[in-house]
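ingest -> validate -> predict -> emit
validate: passed (alphabet ok, no gaps, 245 aa)
predict: started
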Amino acid sequence: MSTEAHLVIGANGAIGRALVKELAINAPEYRVYAVARQHTHKTSAENVRYITLDTANEDAVASWVSEQRKEKVRFKTVVCTAGILHGEYEQRALQPEKKIEDVSSANLMAYFAVNTVVPALWLKALITMMAPQQGSITCLSARVGSIEDNQLGGWYGYRASKAALNMIIKTAAVEYRRRSKQTVLVSYHPGTVDSALSEPFQKNVPQGKLFTAPFTASQLLRYLNGAAVADNPHYVDWKHQPIAW
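emit:
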């Protein structure tokens, strides 16, 4: 008999920490695995297990998932919060591009490594690990990842890596439909959240549109409660409105 659990990947960020806390409180009967490269904030909830793991290391991910398989763990709710917009990455300073001349191969590789490759590795590892009844895998995407909705331009690397993530999810949904039939796949735009990722850009956010991490976690989990496998894959925003791919 399998043990069902929740999994938050990138659990040390603002949204990740809020998700771990809410999942632990709302479903105390389930274990919550909080996976991150480091843990600087921890909840006291007894059902949370903190796992220190390089979430971008394919071998490390596969090894940890294999251990859970041996323990007969199956995941009910999975959220991958991996994402980068600016800041330091492997001794490079990333900033979203304002014009085409700002594009560089190294920065593009950095955006794709975090925003696209990390979620893809976890989608790969988890395809045989989901709960036999309905479960869900959500990857945090962004509205700017919509190809159809791109009216402003700029942010080449971030936009392209999130659009690629959306394609990974859309493609994985075809395979999950065959191999993990009760798993909902969601590409989720959380809006602008008060976090390190959005901090340099918050002055341009309209009043009332800068969300707290707890609000963001609550909105996502509320959506997942009603998300249907038949509608796979989902690409929605924090208001639970669909976004054009």
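The two ends are 39 Å apart (CA to CA).
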